[in-house]
């Protein structure tokens, strides 16, 4: 078992040394189903991260206080390489959606005090964004293609000795909200938060020091792409779940409610009294009435709850 205090960049280095040929991931060169998957081992990804870290140090110099590096490009392996490399050079990667408006991008750059943008090869920045960032003295760097890193000659390991015990609030990566109710808002994930999510992948082994959330316990056990607590201004909380499998009829509903009983109890142990959920206060979505999502695929919570208002009201009438 890995040292619970080890941070992800060090863990990858450790696995590259002990199990160099173990599969890290696989990817296709395009969306075509005819493409052969390219396998990436831990030895390969560790070397790619180290090569990228040396490049960042040479290009940007020493970081002052976990300076932010934004990245714009496709969702392939490159963001993972950059994120891990940025952590090694005491910076934090900011993975920005290319769908954001110019105004939204500038707002995000201001909020995160980002002065460096790495742009994927072949990705064209809108001219107004380039002009605005240049006027703000933002350094815009063209990225090497991901194959450059994955096929890079062997390099020495970039030194990285941080641990969770020494710096639990060390930032790891910055993401942002969808901006469906205004400008997107940046969210910084620390290494402690990352450890929490890893622990929650197996709810039976949740580490109490990771401070998992009630919803995370449900989602990692039986939940699907969407789950939401409901019941504002009501006497008890309820849970709306989009299950991984279709639930047909009262018998299957009751069976699934019984199956998640232990998870309900574990989640309730983490929740304040007003947010605890009884097993009969769980509502499953209907495939004939899909969750309301925006064009980006993000869930529109208010619209979804409005769509299920009748079912939610009925749940409370029958259960309370």
Automatic annotation (TrEMBL):
Residues covered by the AMP-dependent synthetase/ligase domain: 20-201
Keyword field: Phosphopantetheine, Phosphoprotein
Gene3D superfamilies hit by this protein: N-terminal domain of ligase-like (3.40.50.12780)
Matches recorded under PANTHER family: ENZYME, PUTATIVE (JCVI)-RELATED, PHENYLACETATE-COENZYME A LIGASE
UniProt protein name: Acetyl-CoA synthetase-like protein
The species this protein was found in: Periconia macrospinosa
